[in-house]
Amino acid sequence: MNAIDRASHIREPLEHLAAAAEDDAAANMARIWTRRSRTLAIASSVTLLILAAALLWRLFPAGNYYSGNFASIEKRAVTSEFARVTFTVGGMRCETTRRNFQANLRNIEPDRIQKHFVEIDGRRLPVKQAVSVGLGVPRASFDSGKAITALRRLGFATQEVPR
Fold it and tell me: CA-CA distance, 128 to 135, in Å (whole number)?
């Protein structure tokens, strides 16, 4: 309609009508491509965000990290004697296996149990003593809650002394 209005007052109406129609068609095509480009850009951005989230989810699975002072790469309990587990206790990085941990505890005399204990090789040990000796870390650098977490990750069951 715009093309007809513009061409109505010119001498050679058919030529100008054709030119005006071409101009309108070109403007319409530009508008369509602009919309398509915007839609394509949005779709591409959403796709990239989904791919980035999937990659991050793959690299950092939910629940595999403990945010406190006592972190472990694996949150689940170790099922094999030879599986390596890495801990950070009191700022010190410790890496051990369940078998090495048990070997470190073989020749120690158990301290008096206050509240929590772990049974290893038929002997009851206080949780803090077990982790301190088993990992070679000073007892003052962690609390019994962190020790219980470490022992459970190594696959040991902890218990509380009945009152």
Answer: 11
Where along the chain do its domains lie? 2-59, 71-160
Of 14, 15, 16, which Cα lies nearest the Cα of 6? 16
Give just the sign of the alpha carbon dihedral 105, 109, 111, 115.
positive
Q: C-alpha distances in angstroms, 24 versus 1, 5, 20?
A: 9, 12, 6
pLDDT by residue, tens only, the chain of 163 residues: 555 555 555 556 556 656 666 666 667 666 776 777 778 778 888 888 888 887 777 766 554 444 444 444 344 555 567 777 777 776 778 888 888 999 999 989 999 999 999 999 889 999 999 999 998 888 888 888 888 888 888 888 899 988 7
Structural contact between residues 142 and 69, judged by C-beta atoms closer than 8 angstroms: yes
